[in-house]
Design brief:
The complex is a heterodimer of chains A (364) and B (293). Chain A is of the alpha+beta class. Chain A is built from nine helices and 17 strands. In chain A, a hairpin with a 2-residue loop joins strand 7 and strand 8 (163-168). The chains are: A alpha+beta (364), B alpha/beta (293). The A-B interface holds A 80, 83-86, 88-89, 131, 133-134, 160-163, 174, 176, 179-180, 233, 236-244, 246, 269, 295-296, 298, 318-320, 336 and B 6-11, 13-15, 56-57, 102-103, 153-155, 172-173, 176-181, 210-217, 219, 252, 257-259, 261.
């Protein structure tokens, strides 16, 4: 489907170019020459844009392991051949392509290096954010350049049991030794350093700046559990909501799931789940909330209108606690599993307040 | 609004109304119409040996062979492996072995051990084949032995027993999203139904987090073989082990997400077996430490 659409777009572009040349009234010979150049350039751009291999300076040999000269290149069309249903994860983010190198050695299990080139740094961050567990790894002496309020500090790489996961600008990488030994760990960490070398360190997604670290004196954000995503499949792998896409999530949306933990209840760890979704515009956000209300709260009346959101959050007592939501321009804020009405209200209101401080009110 | 199909949500899971909602929303039934099973309790055996793998996670084939023998005799109540196999399959059966191909695949040693054991029991080598793959694979088999590896799965919650035949559907991606609850229907396809003679789960080195790609932090040496003929009961025991391991890792409940609704649906909608622990008789032998059930 995608290939067909690309072909059609290309044909349309070429048609437009022909029309423009006709309007310019160039001589047929000149026009033909220009047209040929434009077609060659556009075709070669299309080809390299799809299958371009990015040059990372990965060592050819590391310890006893050696990689092939060129990587296996995977794109969105053949990703399922490479990893079956796991491909859905990467296509749930803005995925460009994947390069795979296998470092092999005669008497050791291999080291697999996967370089996921995403379309934005936020998407690479999102993949790392799905699991903050592991040993924090820093590849330079100075911490990464981070924004004023950096929720995940300067964490850009995590290591555990042979697997190193890295967020480096628009690149998400997994380097995995199939058998962890001191030598393979050293090799994986050295590869990580090579992967991250000379790459930018953009800040975390803007959406994270909205999240207050504390809500009053009762709730604190579990930074080690927050995740950034765009797809309902990914949401379900973090916090199951529905097997249907009841929040109309897609690649144009940005979402963060952030648990807040009750400070005074360290023993029973009361936790509420806060979800913030940013849509392309207010109308899409409103429709999505409408869909959510119909699917998730079918027995409750809608408490928002097309024109504007209610001043207070809408509150519902459900089987697993209190749920509150609020439509704020092109954002939807929802909190699940609150122990009481007041907690649900304040978690929404504090986040809304931060959203407005960050300019969310004026975004349409 | 009256005719609107209900959407399966977290609330169904919390309320315990999954099967009813699946019945009405996915299958279009007023209530699940699973075939009544005239069974008592379903037996599931767990055989473990602390030394089944060495510190580098290499499988000890000799120990594995003994574990398989113990599994077969304890499960069937027969005196020896030959009689055990012949109580499960017929000498003239064409037997398909179905291992897990991806994401924590079944150990080759397990497949080889089962094959050797069948041959030792008098089954001709030519009557045993690997039957993982598309719908054509099981068609010429008269008996199937499911050999899944124990693992969680990021789209279906658990990806062990019920998912093992997904390629037989000819359209595996169809079962990865909202329809993962329908995995049980594959077991009822005409060329699959009734052929499974044994489910033997490779639980030597399971994966307790969902992936989608293997993360070695979530693999551990359980060193076990889990067996039964009720696929849902075996899956339920596997689910219990994974759930308990996740809880042990985090020190707090760490539920699988999405929840493995295919298990309850396989019981209540497709009638493949029981997902109720009280109807499952678990017998365990060998290494007891951290058995998790």
């Amino acid at each position: 489907m995608k290939r067909k659409a690309q072909k059609e777009t290309k044909e349309q572009e070429q048609g437009n170019i022909r029309k423009e040349l006709a309007i310019m009234k160039l001589s047929p010979r000149t026009a033909l020459f220009l047209l040929a150049i434009i077609i060659i350039v556009s075709i070669s751009e299309g080809a390299t844009g799809r299958m371009k291999v990015c040059k990372l300076n990965l060592p050819k040999t590391i310890g006893v392991w050696t990689r092939p000269d060129s990587p296996r290149v995977i794109n969105s069309e053949n990703i399922f051949d490479y990893m079956n249903g796991a491909g859905e994860l990467y296509l749930g983010y803005c995925f460009n392509h994947l390069e795979v190198y296998e470092y092999t050695a005669d008497d050791e299990k291999s080291i697999l290096v996967e370089l996921y080139y995403m379309k934005t740094s936020d998407d690479a961050f999102g993949l790392l954010s799905l699991d903050w567990g592991g040993e924090h790894v820093f590849f330079s002496d100075s911490p990464a350049n981070t924004a004023n309020q950096s929720l995940t500090s300067s964490t850009r790489a995590l290591y555990g049991a042979g697997l190193l996961r890295i967020w480096s600008d628009n690149l998400y990488s997994r380097a995995m030794a199939f058998r962890e030994t001191p030598a393979s760990k050293q090799a994986v960490l050295t590869l990580g350093k090579a992967i991250a070398a000379n790459r930018k360190s953009p800040p975390e997604p803007e959406l994270l700046k909205i999240l207050p670290l504390h809500i009053g004196s009762a709730w604190k954000l579990r930074k080690d559990r927050l995740s950034f995503f765009r797809s309902y499949l990914v949401l379900n792998s973090i916090y199951y909501l529905s097997h249907e896409n009841i929040l109309d999530l897609d690649l144009s949306t940005e979402a963060v799931m952030a648990p807040y933990e009750h400070i005074s209840s360290a023993s029973d760890r009361t936790r509420s789940q806060f979800l913030l979704v940013k849509y392309e515009n207010h109308e899409r956000a409103r429709k999505a909330l409408n869909h959510f209300q119909d699917a998730y709260l079918p027995e409750h009346q809608k408490e928002f209108t097309a024109a504007s959101a209610a001043k207070s959050p809408s509150l519902f007592k459900l089987e697993d606690g209190w749920l509150a939501y609020k439509l704020v321009n092109k954002y939807i804020a929802i909190v699940f599993e609150c122990p009481d009405q007041e907690s649900a209200r304040i978690i929404i209101q504090e986040n809304e307040s931060n959203l407005l401080k960050n300019g969310g009110y004026h975004e349409r | 609004m009256k005719d609107k199909k209900p959407v399966l949500t977290r609330r169904d899971f919390v309320r315990g109304t999954i099967a009813a909602t699946i019945g009405t929303s996915i299958l279009g039934l007023k209530w699940p119409k699973a075939e009544a099973k005239a069974l008592g309790s379903s037996l599931v055996t767990i055989v473990r040996d602390k030394n089944a793998m060495d510190s580098s996670k290499n499988v000890d084939a000799t120990i594995l062979k003994k574990m398989l023998e113990q599994t077969l005799t304890k499960f069937t109540g027969q005196k020896n492996t030959k009689d055990a196999w012949l109580s499960l399959v017929k000498p003239n059966d064409m037997i398909g072995l179905v291992p897990t191909p991806h994401l924590n695949p079944t150990h080759d040693e397990v497949v080889d051990s089962v094959k050797s054991s069948l041959v030792d029991a008098g089954i001709p080598r030519k009557s045993i084949k690997l039957a993982q793959g598309g719908p054509h694979k099981p068609k010429d088999c008269t008996a199937l032995i499911a050999l899944p590896a124990l693992k969680a799965h990021w789209l279906t919650g658990i990806g062990t027993v019920l998912k093992i035949y997904i390629l037989y559907s000819g359209n595996p991606s169809r079962y990865h999203e909202s329809n993962s609850s329908k995995l049980g229907e594959i077991w009822n396809l005409p060329f699959v139904k009734g052929k499974t003679r044994l489910v033997l789960v490779d639980s030597l080195y399971p994966l307790c987090d969902k992936g989608p790609q293997p993360d070695p932090r979530y693999k551990w040496a359980y060193n076990g073989l889990i067996a039964g003929t009720d696929p849902v009961a075996v899956e339920t025991v596997c689910l219990k082990i994974i759930t308990e391991k996740r809880k042990a890792i985090r020190g707090e409940p760490w539920p699988l997400s999405p929840p493995p609704i295919c298990v309850e649906a396989a019981d209540k909608v497709y009638g493949l077996g029981t997902s109720r622990m009280k109807e499952i008789k678990i017998e365990h032998y060998g290494w007891e430490q951290d058995i998790l059930v």
